[in-house]
Design goal:
Length: 437
């Protein structure tokens, strides 16, 4: 059993924690080798609020995944979400010393690193710097500036910012659970890796990941991420409303929602009734499905409208920014009956439910292809990609071969080193976490 050839994604959600082990098969698809999930205690609205309980939940999920696969888990890629996440657009430029040489990786890296130096609000830290389009000497809309001549290189960046304390808390939980933190990724980005096709990202699409505690949004157009947002409520507030509205306990409310819930009140007749056992010798309660779906409908409309506001903020109404592929719903909350119709009705945009089977190997377990696991599968993909990169970094002889190949093919060289900015950031983060102990 080698330690190198598999990777782990860990999705620390509000309702569940999922650890998923996998590797890349020879067709470039992800083969899932084991999965573990536990009830998430200690996370509220995507943010850790009880360290001890979160550590325990992480350990449970990890142990289950290890038993399930017979492998040992070392380092993991973790997702981050929560209402403290915000994103901003920023443009920056560098002036190159020698415009006789073509633009190379180092120039792009220098430009990216410069953005990491942006002054944030106190207590905030940059999580991702995602370049959008480049400009070379004023020539706009360049996707790939490598190999071009130019003195001034500028770019628009999508910068994702989060709270330092939340990031540190996640790091602390991972470390205390006896794991190494390989990387932190924004959850909506992970989910979109798992469920969106390249065509959708080109055409323009909004990914809505309805989780337990948060609803995450990621918008792509022309293959580039354009907007991200985290809306601080998800499936749990629906359960909460059912609990309050019907005066029942949370467990019953959750079951009602899953078994009988619908986002569209039109179709239940008044005479459809569910009887719920009372607590300790009390009379059972009778709840009409019509009322149940009215409660759900009211809350879901609120969530969808908030998301739609964000889609409009991005500029969906402008012709050039139109999202042709419409909306993709994923996450556990996307399994609510008739949600697709409701979203189409509110937004007027084409909608589909996104399953994370886009990159999974054909013989994967059906269960894993559920929208519930979209984020976890995306984090696993990120981990596999990192794994591939770190193996490259380790092998010096291959470096030389690669350099020769790079000279032959510009495209091949295009992808490998670009990521190193992120690796550097991860290292900075690791040092930061180690010192924080």
């Amino acid at each position: 059993m080698e330690h190198t050839n598999y990777s782990v994604g860990l999705d620390i959600g509000t309702t569940k924690i999922v650890a998923i082990i996998g590797k890349e098969n020879e067709y470039g698809k992800i083969e899932v080798m084991g999965i573990g999930r536990s009830k998430s205690l200690g996370v509220h609205r995507g943010v850790v609020n009880n360290i001890t309980q979160t550590i325990r939940s992480i350990q449970q999920a990890v142990e289950q995944a290890e038993e399930n696969s017979g492998l040992k888990i070392g380092s993991v890629v973790v997702g981050i979400a929560g209402q403290h996440i915000r994103s901003l657009q920023h443009s920056d430029y560098i002036t190159r010393a020698n415009s006789e040489e073509v633009i190379n990786e180092d120039d792009l890296e220098k430009l990216c690193n410069q953005v990491y130096k942006l002054v944030m609000l106190p207590g905030e830290e940059i999580i991702h710097v995602l370049p959008q389009e480049y400009k070379v000497d004023g020539q706009a809309e360049i996707k790939e500036p490598i190999g071009m001549y130019g003195g001034r290189l500028e770019a628009n960046f999508h910068v994702v910012v989060g709270q330092v304390s939340s990031i540190k808390n996640i790091g602390r939980c991972i470390k205390s659970a006896g794991l190494d933190l390989a990387n932190i990724t924004l959850e909506p980005l992970a989910s979109s890796d798992a469920v969106l096709s390249q065509e959708e990202k080109e055409a323009g699409v909004a990914l809505i990941d309805i989780g337990g505690g948060t609803t995450d949004l990621a918008i792509f157009k022309d293959g580039i991420i354009r907007h991200t947002a985290v809306i601080p409520f998800g499936g749990n507030v629906i359960t909460e409303d059912i609990k309050e509205g019907c005066s029942i306990i949370e467990k019953q409310a959750e079951l009602l929602k899953i078994k009988f819930g619908s986002a569209w009140p039109g179709e239940n007749r008044d005479n459809e009734i569910v009887s719920i056992p009372g607590l300790r010798g009390r009379e059972p309660k009778e709840i009409t499905l019509k009322n149940l779906s009215k409660i759900i409908h009211a809350r879901v409309v609120e969530i969808v409208e908030q998301v739609y506001v964000e889609i409009k903020n991005y500029g969906h109404d402008e012709q050039k920014k139109k999202l042709i592929a419409g909306i993709v719903l994923t996450g556990g909350g996307s399994q609510l009956n008739h949600l697709k119709q409701l979203v189409e009705y509110i937004t007027g945009m084409d909608t589909r439910i996104g399953y994370p089977n886009e990159h999974l190997a054909g013989d994967s377990d059906q269960e894993i292809a559920s929208p519930l696991y979209a984020t976890a599968v995306g984090l696993l993909m990120n981990a596999v990609e990192n794994q591939g990169r770190s193996e490259l970094d380790g092998e010096e002889e291959e470096e030389l071969v690669l350099e020769a190949q790079q000279e032959m093919s510009a495209e091949m060289g295009g992808t490998r080193n670009r990521k190193s900015v992120f690796d550097k950031w991860s290292e900075k983060l690791k040092d930061f976490l180690d010192n924080a102990e």
